[in-house]
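Justification of computing resources. Each target in the renewal requires a structure prediction run like the one illustrated here; the chain below, 298 residues long, is used simply to show the kind of job we budget for.
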Amino acid sequence: MQIKLSSSIETTPITYMGADGRQFVAVVSTGGGLTVENTGTNSTLSGVISGAGGLTKQGSGTLVVSGVDTYTGTTSIGAGRLNLNGSIMSNTTVNATGTLGGTGTINSANSVTVTGGTVAPGTSPGILNSGNVSFDSSSTLAVEIGGTTPGSTATSHDQLNVTGTVSLGDATLALSSFNGFVPSLGQTFVIINNDGSDTVTGTFNGLAEGGTITNFLGSGLNATITYAGGTNGNDVVLTAVPPPAPEIAVEEPIDDRITEFRRRRLRMELYAHHRVLAVRHRHDDVVVLGTGGRAGDQ
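Resulting structure tokens:
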């Protein structure tokens, strides 16, 4: 199918049939724009969309755009999900209740502006390629993690691959495990691959540089985030790290003659395999080193 977006005015709805047998309606509106409102679970525009108009996605369904499209008007996602699996040469806005996903490419000369919407790369999982990306504080980057390598396999993770600038604007980072994946200590995940040497502007909400994500993907491990990671020092990277060592409280006699006990806070530093490194009094300089035996053997 080829849809030409001209400057003409067309008021007659055009009904298309989705691959799943459900219908969606495209109406070419004033100025040559194409509005797609679909309620089907999965509908596809597989032909070439060209011309000076834009594309507006409405309706709660998912629209897949898979052609090599050359239209130059704005792509606006107002509701539902647009999976870009082809390529477009269009500035793109993702508004509240709208989601941009897929494994395609938004031309590097164009920008993605997320205002209250969600960017969810891939189709569980995958890499979405774009030009400049800007989030606001009411928007979300949703990332599925099924492994340490970005891509579209069952053992991959989502990635936003940006050729241009990245502005995070205090957006929410939403992480989820894919295919039952459980991270291991020391594994890293490049969730935003930023080209060149330009730095990432801003951070995700509640996650400053070096910030901690507790119970990372339900693993019991934590994760740290950096906005200056990767080979160029400007990628957003998560690293699985151990949880903090536990703090315990013990009671000890003040001296040999007095039976009253004083509670002191102690910090016990443990190896991952539960061997004692040291026990330190927080309020004095006493250090008792273990001998490598298991806790309780001393």
